[in-house]
């Protein structure tokens, strides 16, 4: 399940709780589009903002709505103790893989992070995906640490935060990491802006934010890149430049995609937990114009 | 209560829970030393690693052990909803002030943070201290935002993350902020390394990590600086250079102070929640040597 398009849906939520119906519809739409896997409760899925009970409930809804598509959920938490409990509950409701970010408040060192993965690896029975995104976890992996973690039982994929923009540098970056990890461990790119470059450079998967809302658009890029048509993947990704520009303008993909979901009627406003808010005013109009013009689907 | 030494004790905890007896003893020691206030459940107090029930319990223990010394606790949480609940529970157990960090996972913008403080300000009855530390919250305040927040009801102090090392630049920095906030709002320095420079530059308070474990050492610096004896404050702080060097070496004060607490028998090992750990091996020996040589108390 660690190849192709892994689509990361939002979890619509506000001060009243999780909008379970809207979430279920988002997941059903991904199953209908035949994405390769679903990454529920990722950063985009707001796992960090939910209690353990809420996360288990959302994981269960995802599994029920996903049909034959395998579901992965994040078990990220500040404490190893809570990570282990989340892993247990997620496996009980039928998730097929676990995504583990080294979430931090006080800065973590490499040995803390290795021991976290080691402990979790020894206590789960489904595959693990390593989550590498300093933008949310504030932890920087070295490739050497990736190499050590990738040797652990159950570790099956590494979600990397992006690649250099230039294709030959992207290729070098992916090959350097590949040289340090076992061959059964896949590398998946995240940071949607880097998706085509990353897959063209050898990443086997795309852990995708837009794929969680616009799976057909993301699938077209994924299928082109993974079938070897780098030119077509690049063309399709470059068509989306106005969307990438919005991600830069609004500090990342998260709020833009949450705003797009409200605009398209997938979710009801407010769909984010305070103090987070979707984008209002002129920015919202810009987003509406871009998602319409690009015919995202 | 927002002047002088505000001492931030550790909350000893491990996989079995909070060591309530050790915590109580740490707080009693601060009361005995006559610190000006106690900042329980700050970043040093590990608030981020505890459940709401555990935080309320620790706040209660702090109030009970502090005697006449006023207690402040952090109400930081990713969601406004949880911040409000924490504020309510902390006030019920008798804390005298609330420390509010803009904790983030997805990046916050200035308007998110302003609305967080605005909402909390409208829903509390005790003073608020603004917590500015990008190292843990990953949010960067501008002075303009500080100015807007400082106008809100109940806001009584700003905990700043440090000052420039050069005394004239530190003075400029403190005066610039002072010019933007009401006169009843104090400025307190944090980052122990900057304490003497900060107070000599006009900060009225020191929100202190070492003060939570070695209150007499921290009080001597505070009393010298706030009585106008900048020279003596500087001398006392410079004596602690080997300790500041350890903070730099081990990525901040947190693990060094937690390790020192174990070494001095204030807490039992392990005293941090996994995946965090105190420092072992050669580093631990270095810390033992420094705290003994400096006669911290």
Task: Describe this entry's structure for a reader.
Two copies of one chain form a homodimer. Chain A is an alpha/beta fold and 297 residues long. Chain A has a single domain, classed as Aldolase class I (TIM Barrel, Alpha-Beta Barrel). Chain A is 46% helix and 13% strand. The first copy, chain A, has 13 helices and ten strands. In chain A, the strands form two sheets. An eight-stranded parallel beta barrel of chain A has the order 1-4-5-6-7-8-9-10, surrounded by six helices. In chain A, strand 8 (155-160), helix 7 (167-178) and strand 9 form a beta-alpha-beta unit. In chain A, helix 1 (20-32) runs parallel beside helix 2, helix 2 (52-65) packs parallel to helix 3 and helix 12 (253-263) packs across helix 13. Chain A is globular, with a radius of gyration of 18 Å. Chain A starts with a strand and ends with a helix. In chain A, 56% of the residues are buried. Chains A and B meet through helix 4 of A and helix 4 of B. Chains A, B: This is Dihydrodipicolinate synthase. Chains A, B: It comes from Pseudomonas trivialis. Chains A, B: The active site is at residues 131, 159. Chains A, B: Belongs to the DapA family. Chains A, B: Pfam families: DHDPS.
């Amino acid at each position: 399940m660690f190849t192709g398009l892994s689509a990361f849906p939002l979890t619509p939520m506000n001060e009243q709780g999780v909008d379970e119906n809207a979430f279920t519809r988002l997941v059903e739409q991904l199953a209908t589009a035949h994405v390769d896997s679903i990454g529920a409760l990722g950063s985009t899925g707001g796992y960090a903002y939910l209690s353990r009970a809420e996360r288990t409930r959302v994981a269960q809804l995802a599994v029920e709505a996903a049909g034959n598509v395998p579901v992965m959920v994040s078990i990220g938490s500040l404490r190893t103790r809570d990570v282990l409990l989340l892993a247990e509950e997620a496996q009980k409701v039928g998730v097929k893989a676990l995504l583990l970010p080294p979430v931090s408040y006080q800065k973590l060192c490499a040995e803390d992070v290795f021991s976290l993965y080691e402990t979790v690896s020894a206590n789960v029975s489904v595959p693990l995906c390593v989550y590498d995104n300093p933008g949310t976890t504030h932890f920087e992996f070295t490739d050497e640490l990736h190499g050590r973690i990738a040797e652990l039982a159950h570790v099956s994929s590494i979600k990397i935060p992006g690649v250099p923009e230039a294709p030959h540098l992207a290729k070098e970056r992916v090959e350097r990491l590949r040289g340090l990890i076992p061959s059964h461990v896949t590398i998946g790119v995240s940071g949607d802006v880097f998706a085509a470059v990353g897959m063209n450079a050898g990443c086997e998967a795309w852990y995708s934010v837009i794929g969680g809302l616009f799976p057909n658009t993301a699938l077209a890029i994924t299928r082109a890149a993974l079938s070897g048509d780098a030119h077509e993947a690049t063309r399709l990704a470059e068509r989306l430049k106005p969307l990438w520009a919005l991600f830069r303008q609004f500090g990342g993909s998260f709020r833009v995609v949450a705003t797009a979901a409200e605009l398209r009627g997938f979710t009801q406003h407010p769909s984010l937990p305070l103090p987070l808010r979707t984008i209002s005013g002129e920015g919202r109009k810009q987003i509406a114009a871009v998602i319409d013009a690009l015919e995202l689907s």
